[in-house]
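Supplementary Methods. Inverse-folding protocol.

Structures were first reduced to a discrete structure-token string of length 188. This string, shown here, constituted the complete conditioning input.
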């Protein structure tokens, strides 16, 4: 071990650098798995099970006003699509943070809960009750939109050398890249 001038040892710094370099690979794996899952879902012969899978054409007009009923009580509201997306992402981040801080769940568990909250309505309404056709692009978007806590958790660590603002900026950039790739397939 070679001592550094600030009192830390060189191998500790190397481990931090290596750990930081491995993070983008994890995100690349998540993105690839999401894309593979969407393609597999789109190509599954679901007609044998009575499931209706459709992929509507992309709608990239994020300012278009759309109706959604997030609580399935029949009293949904109409607002621009981008507001729906931001509200769901912010809600997922807030829920994950509360679960992590109050219940003391690890980040991966609290993120899994928020992703589940976003995907379970699709499973219930599309597969179990068969009230509407399955839209794989919308599923992938909802998975990504609800996984915003994972983007934050991947860069959030107790490294005093990296500022929290820079960490949040890097997290937001990763989430925004996935959002831009999937937003046109979202419903609403």
């Amino acid at each position: 071990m070679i001592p550094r001038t600030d009192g830390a040892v060189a191998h500790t710094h190397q481990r931090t650098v290596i750990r930081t370099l491995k993070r983008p690979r994890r995100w690349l794996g998540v993105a690839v798995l999401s894309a593979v899952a969407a393609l597999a879902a789109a190509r599954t012969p679901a007609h044998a099970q009575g499931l209706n899978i459709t992929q509507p054409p992309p709608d990239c007009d994020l300012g278009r006003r759309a109706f959604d009923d997030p609580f399935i009580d029949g009293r949904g509201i109409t607002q621009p699509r981008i507001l729906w997306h931001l509200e769901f992402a912010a809600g997922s981040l807030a829920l994950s943070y509360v679960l992590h801080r109050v219940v003391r769940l690890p980040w991966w568990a609290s993120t899994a809960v928020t992703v589940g909250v976003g995907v379970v309505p699709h499973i219930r309404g599309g597969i179990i009750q068969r009230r509407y056709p399955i839209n794989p692009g919308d599923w992938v978007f909802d998975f990504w939109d609800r996984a915003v806590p994972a983007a934050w958790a991947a860069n959030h660590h107790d490294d005093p050398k990296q500022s929290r603002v820079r960490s949040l900026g890097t997290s937001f950039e990763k989430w925004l890249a996935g959002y831009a790739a999937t937003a046109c397939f979202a419903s609403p």
